[in-house]
Amino acid sequence: MAKLTEHTRRDEATTLGKETVFKGTLRFTDSLCILGKFSGEIISPGRLTIAEGAEVKANIRVGSVTVGGVVRGNILAKHKLEMLATGKVIGNISTSKLKIADGVIFEGKCEMIKDPDKIDIFGQTADALKKAIDEQQVRQEQIPAPASRE
Prior knowledge:
single chain, 1 helix, mainly beta, 11% helix, globular, 13-stranded parallel sheet
């Protein structure tokens, strides 16, 4: 599997360079690649790439994310979460599609989102999102399965 490094050509709208250090709340609409360090919170409907060597200490709520570096914090990826072989995630993850390469280090819980279109990553806090996902799963479990035709 390909590694995401500072030399990898991607179609990212914005790139935070290897020597970059940011702190705070980061919002973007299209795509972002982090090569350096970031701490705080990341919120976007777009695509986030955390390259090999990057360090992120943040709760992340995005459309999709690829992790090749280190993330310390919870991740909600509405559409897709991909962890590359160089990736390390210390925190809980929630996503509708998950891809994990051999060699990934992951310490946390994983929750699969059944209906990502009902998740609003902007309108709620991380705790409220978790509660909404839990409630949605309880409702899904209460719906009886269709009778089989044998």
